[in-house]
Amino acid sequence: MKSLKFAVLPGDGIGPEVMSVTLDILKIIGERFNFTLDYQTADIGGIAIDNHGTAFPVTTQAICEESDAILFGSVGGPKWESLPPKDQPERAALLPIRKAFSLYANIRPGLLYSELAEASPLKSERIPKGIDIVCIRELTGGIYFGQPKSTYEEAGETVALDTMIYKTSEIERIAKVAIDTAKNRQKKVCSVDKANVLETSVLWRKTVTDYFKKHAPEIELSHMYVDNAAMQLARDPNQFDVLFTENMFGDILSDEMGVICGSLGMLASASLGASKNSIGLPFGLYEPSGGTAPDIAGKGIANPCAQILSAAMMLRYSFGENEAAETIEKAVEKAVTSGSRTGDIAFGGKALSTKEMSEAILHSI
Ligand code: NAD
Questions:
Q1: Are 71 and 22 in contact, with CB atoms under 8 Å apart?
Q2: Nearest to residue 354, comparing CAs of 251, 265, 243?
Q3: Which of 13, 42, 149, 307 sits in a 20 to 30 Å window from 299, CA-based?
């Protein structure tokens, strides 16, 4: 029987709560689809600071390096907010782990079932069929990583500098991810940039246009300035199918997409690495889009769907278990649309606990 080798990094807050039920579901799915789980759990984020003095310990990195994928919870919380910003869990764990594994491709589905339209701040008549789009964001280039980056004194005042930089090869490899994603959907990609102002965007637009023309002429490619994309997303999200952009624009647009899709508790994500894993598929990190939800942590009421759907993405992208992934996705949809809900999506109706929600999903499986 096949054995799936992955690292489990639950992190802080609701992370361990939603991770535990996700592993239960993966175990049952493995029995159905003929695979076993071979995972090692390690500390990351605040708990790693408490136990090891650093947010991303070398022992955790070693466990990830031995694995074919990482299933990640979330990190951070009030306990660590008084630390210097560079030592806080998000900055000291998330950015280094992305860098360590060259996680350059962030895939974030923006999915809202029509039955949950109430959870969206958009008027229900604007999204009669819910929302179904996906954002592909470049994750290791652009202004967040560009050098030089500094703050200095000049002519009696403080000056801060960030550098936005992109190479053709970085743009082409993420363009390939957008194409692969579009091929399994509506074959439609909207590339977002600011080519009227930024040199990096001029290169982005030219490179994307050339790459699509050469490698995927069947995909309908359009371009949009980022300011317009932010407006269009709030006006009519379903005009997009695959929304594709660079690091900083993607950071902002994917969060906007998260908000219009309702609860963070429903939104999964995948960040694929440049290297292949031991079975020849992309190494990836899979995590919910939300954070550690300190306001509800420890109460056993967090919505586990985002973590469970992230695990489904792991099965698909890093292990090629497409049928198992689809079974999980359908079970989550069936459970939620037939009325099983945690508090964040219950709208005053009966709110299930994390465990009860996962049992409802198991029942659908
Ligand atoms: P958050 O996403 O943790 O919470 C925002 C709101 O969404 C809260 O009301 C929370 O209860 C709700 N929510 C989020 N996930 C939920 C779930 N699964 N079920 C039900 N409700 C859910 O954002 P925040 O409050 O801004 O941040 C809290 C902490 O998380 C901070 O320390 C922040 O740095 C960290 N954070 C970590 C990540 C990450 O690890 N990738 C991402 C974002 C924030």
A1: yes
A2: 265
A3: 42
Strand-pair partners of 9? 72
Contact 247, 139 (CB under 8 A): yes
Q: What are 137-157's pLDDT values in tens digits? A: 999 999 988 999 999 999 999
User: Do 250 and 170 belong together in one domain?
Assistant: yes
| 289 & 349 share domain | yes
Task: Specify whether the CB–CB gap between 286 and 270 falls below 8 A.
Answer: yes
Q: What is the DSSP string of 171-183?
A: HHHHHHHHHHHHH
DSSP E strand stretches across 202-328: 220-225, 242-245, 268-276, 282-288
CB 50, CB 16: distance < 8 Å: no
Distance 16 CA to ligand 1 centre (A): 13
Q: Are 211 and 172 in contact (CB under 8 A)?
A: yes
CATH number at residue 281: 3.40.718.10
Mutate to test the pocket of ligand 1, among 81, 254, 264, 336 (most ligand atoms within 8 A of CB): 264
**Closest of 286, 312, 351, 291 to residue 15, by C-alpha:** 291
Same domain (yes/no): 101, 187: no
Report CA(107)–ligand 1 centroid distance (Å).
19
Mutation test residue for ligand 1: of 271, 344, 352, the one with most atoms within 8 Å of CB = 344
- What's the total number of domains in the chain? 2
Q: How confident is the model at residue 118 (pLDDT cuts 50, 70, 90)?
A: confident
Choose one of 228, 260, 292: the last residue of a domain: 260
The residue contributing the CA closest to ligand 1 atom 37 is 291
Q: Which of 163, 167, 139 is nearest to 149 (CA)?
A: 163
Which residue's alpha carbon is nearest to atom 17 within ligand 1?
265
* 310-363 pLDDT tens trace: 999 999 999 999 999 999 999 999 999 999 999 999 988 899 999 999 999 999
Sign of CA dihedral 86, 91, 92, 95: negative
10 Å CB burial of residue 70 (0-12, 13-18, 19+) is buried
